[in-house]
What we know:
Low-confidence stretches of chain B: none
Largest sheet of chain B: 6 strands, mixed
Distance between the termini of chain B: 27 Å
Largest sheet of chain A: none
Strand content of chain B: 25-35%
Radius of gyration of chain A: 26 Å
Mean pLDDT of chain A: 88
Mean pLDDT of chain B: 92
CATH architecture of the largest domain in chain A: Orthogonal Bundle
CATH architecture of chain B: 3-Layer(aba) Sandwich
Order of helices and strands of chain B: EEEHEEHEHHHHHEHEHEEHH
Number of domains of chain A: 2
Shape of chain A: flat
Oligomer: heterotrimer
Amino acid sequence: MIITKGMVLSDIKLEKRRKLKDRIFQFMVIGFSVIAVIPLLLIIGKLVKEGVGQINFDFFTRTAPNTMEAMVAVNNNETIPGGIANGITGSLLMVVMASVMAIPVGVVTGVYLSEFGNSKFAGLVRSIADILQGVPSIVLGVIAYLWVVKHITSGYSALAGSVALAIMMLPLIIRSTEETLKMIPVTYKEAAFALGVPYHKVIYKVLIPSGLSGLLTGILLAISRVLGETAPLLLTALGSSMITLDITEPVSAVPLLIWDFYNDPNMVSLIWSSSLFLMGFVLFLNIMAKRIAKKWKIQ
Amino acid sequence: MNEAIIKINDPLISIENLSVAYEQGKYAVKDVGAGIKKKSITAIMGPSGCGKSTLLRAINRLHELYPDIVVEGDIYLNGNNIFQMSAIALRRKIGMVFQRPNPFPTMSIYDNVMAGYKLNGKSLKKDRKDEIVEKSLKEVTLWNEVKDALYNKGNFLSGGQQQRLCIARALAYKPDVILMDEPTSALDPVATSKIEDLLVELKKDYTIVLVTHNMSQAARISDYSMFMYMGELIEYGETSGIFSTPVDKRTEAYLTGKFG
Amino acid sequence: MKSEKITKIVLLVTAGLIILIAAGMAYSLFGGAMPVFQKFGLKFIISSDWNPTEGRESYGAMPFIAGTLLTSLLALLICFPFAFSTSLFIGEYYRGKKIGSILGTLVDLLAGIPSIVYGLWGFYVLKPLIVNLGINQHGLGIFTASLILAIMIIPYATSLSNEIISLVPNELKEAAYSLGATRREVITNVILPSAGSGIVAGYVLALGRALGETMAVTMLIGNANIIPDDLFGMGNTMASVIANQFGEAEGLKLSALIAIGLLLFLITALVNFLGKLIMKKLYS
Lengths: 299, 260, 284
């Protein structure tokens, strides 16, 4: 508080008020910030509390129970048998397929944007990638339905689910690839060219290896994003009680199983363990990605 | 041919009426003609922006990485017009060393030396590769310093060592010519003098064209010197001659420090 | 250079793929929506009907548009003080300090929680809370959905603001401090005006995210196909109705749902475009 000679009582009062306002403001900022992250802790807490007990070996290896089994178990006060194996395999299948579709196209497009970024066409590509990034996932589900469920597999399928997820991953991978490659000093490119290395080899033997960590970060983040998605899968993969690798058939996924459990009064208690698993895995990928990114930035 | 420009007999490289423009009408290099003598060190000097780097990069057509650049005139290497051969084939005959040392960050020292082969997909037997690596590193007097760390990445090396590694990388591919774009300007005086000694040794076997912003470096180690100013080749001759009795007034002004 | 030309063409064509995908999406959405627009014209957008009975089918998107806009805007409003405080915490008060980056990480983690998990937590924890507080009879409705949405979009609203706020040049702040300003005054008079458009852009982008959110909202909004009469009533959103009713939909109903998807796409694209525009102005 600045009190100088010649200040009158009203001035001093003003100073006091300003200081008070400042304190209150700071208090509010800290308070609101803390409140903002409380839900995170509450959610994690709830999931751990309710879900940890049900996670065991069976959880990962057995498929989800059907409603009869669940009802019987609930009536007899036993733990519901089964696990989420069909969800895990389904999610894995679709994420792998989506990656196979999205990573090559995404990385190459990212290379194009970082090499020719100033052309008008590049500007168009970038804008479209931005628009695509903002499309709600449910709309992508509609698209995959129209393209795959209707016309390709004549029915719900893992392929349809993968297509929806791939379109979700694409803009993320494009952007992170472009950003990563733009940061590689141009001198490495020039050194490679000066050695008489042809353009395509400069790209995949020098540029991409140099930016590998950054690329990986983008890919991991994209994967962690789509692993948790439910909405588009409701319209495309539908769900299945079996573990299957047939991409033309419906398949389950961890979020879909959670949705099934939620909707079935007999299986409701299973939602916590599966959610814990899903959230834990997604957060794990997230943290891994950020750590790789940090390591790369230091280089 | 004007008398400020020396005529080289039987030049390895012959530059004829070369002009390079970055944009329409903006010429960085204007109508330069000169011959480069085999197995010598030719220095290109001049104030900032005079076009010396641009001229150097035209020799291995590196300017073609930037599609807006336009080139007129011809350059001959061993009698062959470089613009009529494959750029890739050309660059494999010419080694280049850059201002900031740039060993490839994802490769080991060993692989860096062999980069010319590795990146071009040329696989050799391990013995042959070991031979090339050892020879190249010995040529740049780096062998003893790194022979026990060949498979580590080069980032623990000092600036001077990294630059010598880059020179080894260029040598490994057995080029006819080595182009050097201010190779010591990012290095400390000790590293600089080591590299200058190295270049004097190398010129016994290689033809070296060296761009330098440091005229005393040119005076120290080059056999021939070019002075460029605002894109034009003002004067070119034996180094001793140019530094003692420059023909052109502008050369004299530059050498006496009248402009940077 | 032949191989170089080929490489360039491959790069170009692959980049063009994304344009093809986007075009295909637009084509499919418009095509699928055509039937319902042909039957009801633009009235579809403002109508509140939702009658799938055969013979008397009538569909309208208004309840869902209303629900989407209401929940998203309300969510934005609710999240504002929290997101803004977090931005100031991370970008100003504790910038560069350990606790600032810890909070930043925690907020980031909020973005990593899957939507369905938010929905479950909202349903089993938030909903009873709201019922107990007497706000609402069943705990479902616009308000509850907005609440969970607000939590979900906090990280999107803050991520941009953090950076912008921390980038305000020190000289400006120091000048203000040396005139005897308090921290709060520096914030309101120097940082905010300077970072203003960046902060706004962040919220616009958060809005875009809220508009498209499906699972958490669908579990908390009550799924009533009506325009809610007050903020605590039940309603429905465009994303929810698609998620819920797409399964067995056929014919005109399917077309209506696709049309809603198209509208959702357009609204979201518009909002995101606005956000990007503001950001461009900021960086130019």
